[in-house]
């Protein structure tokens, strides 16, 4: 077990107790020990910020993942820097607060031109780190899969690159880090994202005093500092699991590979074309998806609009519901942007479940929309008001506080904008709904506003 103490001299001179922070020595980029022996990573920076803003001293205890969990089972005044929740861990840990989100993905060996068979079918062998959340997740959701367990991430990814295993489940950010630093970013591809979960700080079960101290200490870290740490290690403008340089690197490597295949082996053109199509499909998915909520972004919504318009029957109209959270800045200012993000993710999850025919998208900030075929304006109104009521009745619990939010909605159908559906443009539809949404805000918020069937400029009916 490696240790490393950190604190300003001023803090040490006060002879305060040193908080012991346990974690993995090889969970890149969250915590790891490079050649100089000084711990690095997102969670290392986070706990150093904790020490700074709480005027305390900390000591890192970094070891193999299973050893870090065994250390926590011993109890006492110690903190686990960050891990995912599982039923097994709840037996000996109390979780303090979510720190950052992470994805867990299934990776399979990249075999160009070949369609991979289901790697999670019964009897398949999948590599995981022993004692990890990924191991627990597979056992819980895919009990028939045979797990090959490794003591640490280093040995897991080495086994994958050496051909010992052809599939593995790991934290997406960690997998990308290892494959890229080994110079083999395309050796394995992410077959699917299995889960998106928050990483929690934790203390030994029953240590209520330490639980309270750490919870209050985390609240003292400024939101701007949390954002700086996150942006340093994780690209927040894309899907959180992927660094900013990953997609350009993939494109560059694949283009060079295509040129090489064409120049050397013309017979490989077909196989390379198949591989490029698969990669381009993934890139299109990234480009059309909002990284925080996993809903469509504006570009993705435009693509869906283009596909939907010619499919509408003569009896159908194009309907758009524009949703904006009321006073959302107050939620961020009061509870922090991390809690605000959770509200946005919860709303996105609700919209995914609610929309049966159509598409949900996040246009930016706290603004969402639903684009769907509808029989008439009345059907769209009923749908919009159902959403408004459901959200108003939802209670979010953060740190013992109950948070309620409401939404202002503008609802409109295509005939309110143009006479012929062929002339309809998405920008015009969104703009018309946007005017209605702001009218809802001007009239007191938490309501649905719509236009008459004649024109957007006609008097607006209030629900």
UniProtKB/TrEMBL annotation:
GO terms for molecular function: diguanylate cyclase activity. It is an enzyme of class 2 (transferase). The chain crosses the membrane at residues 242-264. CDD domains: GGDEF (cd01949), PBP2_HisK_like_1 (cd13706). Its cofactor is Mg(2+). Its EC number is 2.7.7.65. It catalyses: 2 GTP = 3',3'-c-di-GMP + 2 diphosphate. SUPFAM superfamilies: Nucleotide cyclase, Periplasmic binding protein-like II. Keywords: Membrane, Transmembrane, Transmembrane helix. Residues 316-453 form the GGDEF domain. This is diguanylate cyclase.
């Amino acid at each position: 077990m490696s240790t490393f103490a950190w604190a300003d001299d001023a803090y040490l001179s006060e002879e305060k107790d040193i908080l012991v922070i346990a974690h993995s020595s090889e969970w890149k980029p969250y915590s790891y020990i490079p050649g100089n022996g000084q711990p690095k990573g997102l969670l290392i920076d986070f706990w150093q910020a904790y020490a700074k803003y709480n005027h305390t001293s900390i000591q890192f205890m970094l070891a193999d993942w299973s050893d870090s969990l065994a250390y926590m089972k011993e109890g006492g005044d110690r903190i686990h820097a960050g891990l995912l929740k599982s039923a097994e861990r709840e037996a000996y840990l109390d979780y303090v607060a979510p720190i950052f989100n992470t994805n867990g993905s299934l990776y399979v060996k990249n075999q160009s031109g070949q369609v991979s068979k289901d790697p999670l079918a019964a009897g398949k062998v999948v590599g995981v780190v022993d004692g990890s959340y990924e191991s627990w997740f597979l056992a819980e959701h895919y009990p028939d899969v045979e797990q090959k367990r490794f003591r640490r991430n280093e040995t897991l990814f080495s086994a994958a690159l050496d051909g010992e295993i052809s599939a593995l489940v790991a934290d997406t950010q960690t997998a990308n880090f290892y494959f890229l630093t080994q110079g083999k970013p395309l050796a394995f591809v992410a077959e699917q994202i299995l889960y998106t979960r928050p990483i929690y700080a934790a203390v030994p079960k029953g240590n209520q005093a330490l639980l309270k101290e750490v919870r209050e200490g985390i609240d003292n870290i400024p939101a701007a500092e949390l954002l700086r740490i996150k942006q340093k290690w994780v690209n927040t403008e894309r899907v959180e699991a992927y660094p900013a340089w990953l997609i350009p690197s993939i494109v560059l490597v694949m283009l060079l590979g295509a040129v090489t295949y064409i120049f050397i082996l013309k017979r490989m053109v077909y196989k390379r074309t198949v591989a490029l199509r698969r990669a381009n499909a993934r890139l299109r998915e990234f480009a059309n998806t909002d990284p925080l909520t996993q809903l469509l972004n504006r570009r993705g919504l435009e693509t869906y609009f283009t596909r939907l318009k010619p499919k509408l029957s003569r009896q159908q109209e194009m309907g758009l519901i524009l949703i904006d959270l009321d006073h959302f800045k107050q939620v961020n200012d009061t509870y922090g942007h991390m809690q605000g993000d959770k509200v946005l993710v919860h709303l996105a999850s609700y919209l995914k479940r609610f929309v049966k025919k159509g598409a949900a998208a996040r246009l930016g900030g706290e603004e969402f929309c639903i684009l769907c075929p509808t029989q008439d304006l009345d059907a769209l109104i009923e749908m919009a008001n159902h959403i408004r009521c459901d959200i108003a009745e939802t209670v979010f619990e953060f740190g013992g506080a109950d948070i309620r939010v409401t939404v202002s909605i503008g609802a409109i159908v295509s005939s309110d904008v143009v006479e012929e559906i062929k002339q309809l443009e998405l920008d015009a539809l969104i703009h018309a709904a946007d005017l209605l949404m702001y009218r809802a805000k001007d009239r007191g918020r938490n309501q649905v506003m719509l236009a008459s069937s004649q024109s957007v400029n006609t008097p607006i009916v209030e629900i």
